[in-house]
Design a protein that fits this description.
With 117 residues, this protein is mainly alpha-helical. It contains six helices and two strands. One of its GO terms (molecular function) is nucleic acid binding.
């Protein structure tokens, strides 16, 4: 579900080159699978239909320990009664976490770095 929301947000923001790091290997494998042996799933099909909007779109597997920011935000989201959205100013704690995680791992392909600078 989080990946579906992330792809829709990236589309709404008008981003054209995106990388989605996912900590579920089965989802990454399914999204990268071509041919007739694809699993029929409403969520997977929603993600695939959004994927067509991007010039470059990549789904990669990363272990949860390597995706600390996403894991931290997911835990926060579970505890919230209402949704939270930050578009221009991020909380300092989130900014610090993202900078630590991105240091040395993001390329020009990463929209996140340009947002934070």
């Amino acid at each position: 579900m989080a990946l579906r929301l992330a792809t829709k947000l990236a589309k709404q923001q008008g981003w054209k080159k995106v990388v989605f790091e996912v900590d579920c290997l089965q989802i990454v494998e399914e999204l990268n699978r071509e041919g007739t042996e694809r699993i029929e799933s409403v969520v997977i099909e929603d993600i695939r239909s959004t994927q067509e909007f991007f010039d470059e779109c990549c789904f990669t597997f990363t272990r949860r320990v390597n995706n600390f920011v996403s894991h931290t935000l997911a835990k926060l989201a579970i505890s919230l009664e209402f949704s939270a959205e930050w578009k221009e100013a991020f909380p300092a704690w989130l900014h610090d976490l993202v900078q630590m995680e991105c240091k040395g791992s993001c390329s020009d392909f990463c929209n996140l770095v340009s947002i934070l600078q």
